[in-house]
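Re-running the complex after MR caught last week's input typo. The corrected sequence lines follow. Everything else is unchanged.
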Amino acid sequence: MASERYSFSLTTFSPSGKLVQIEYALAAVASGAASVGIKAVNGVVLATEKKHKSILYEDHSTYKIEKITDHIGMVYSGMGPDYRLLVRRARKMAQDYLLMYGETIPTSQLVQRVANVMQEYTQSGGVRPFGVSLLIAGWDASVNNGSPILFQCDPSGAYFAWKATAMGKNYVNGKTFLEKRYDDKLELEDAVHTAILTLKEGFEGQMTEDNVEIGICDENGFRRFTPEEVKDYLTNIA
Amino acid sequence: MSILSYNGGAVIAMKGGNCLAVATDLRYGVELRTVTTDFPKMFEIHPHLWVGLPGLASDTQTVLEKIRFRVKMYELQENRPIQPETFAAMLSNMLYERRFGPFFIEPIVAGLNPHTQSIYLCSMDLIGNVTTPEDFVVGGTAEEQLLGMCETVWSPDMDPDQLFESVSQALVNAVDRDASAGWGAEITIIEPHQITTRRIKTRMD
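Corrected-run output:
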């Protein structure tokens, strides 16, 4: 049958030592909508552009920034459907951990498990890598009376902890902007402000509460801003 | 013949002021025949985390090996030492996995957090139901005798020496009234910066 011919892994090495499918996946991510994550002293902010291709789209019926557990949230750049699968997996892994250990999952443990899933799809037969990079923001209550944490997961399965980073369209400029603007003593309020400014750098058109999503993670847990809250922050940058 | 009293045994853990006592009898027997007199049923996971596994001796050994395996994997993966509450949750989960073909042990867990000085005690049935009392936990064939003795000798906030006295009296007198537990006892007193193990003599029968 036809499927027998495709049961080998598509991620086989090229002569130059690269895995081309992963390179292409990263290209899919780089052409996706921009997203930004910034770690402050008292929390983490995630922000993303949510441009609709037509005015007929129903705003706020689906979300890019998703809660994984009460204390961990996630956003992506790249292919939405691939993201949804990873959100479901991450949520289940967090609950499995809670059931086994009676304890909420540390952010770094969740990241390792999600990254492991992404890696499996680069070394299995008949599948392709995920076309998303994830930003995972969490609050670890058990470390130093609570500390914020920000990770990025790539299609290859590699993960990195960041103080601040940008992904998707225009990410190079975004990162340069953050390198200049970031400082260790940033408070969450300022970090949200900076995140919005970073998104604004590459934004086509007017930023409104309907085409920007923001989420924060602090000692009270993870939550997504309502459009009204986003609007307040947007008016402040004008 | 009841499978939980085939080998016999007794374990106890008791809370003091900022110290913890764990103790076990030393008999290994097969029904009425005593085979060995140096078979403790209380094991160290960390200097400040102990688990007692009274019941069928084969399961004592197997569960000990399996839980040590799980703890090592956890600590390598998480890059931090395991907390007593988490250990108990993990052990409970392991036992419930075998809900319809269980391990025949009724464990107790005792831990002292050396930084916060908080003490954790819990006891479980053979399928992992966890109870966390504030004073003492007991297990084994001499369970009822142990409970009676503990109720009598326990008082809150004992210092290490008083605690040693209480645990010794509770264990010795309980196992002396149980045919399948005894043949000596091993008692460990755990304080934040010092851990002492002593063996004492019970009725040697």
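None of the earlier attempt is carried over here. Chain B touches chain A at residues 77-78, 83, 85-86, 88-90, 93 (CB under 8 Å). The longest helix of chain B spans residues 57-78.
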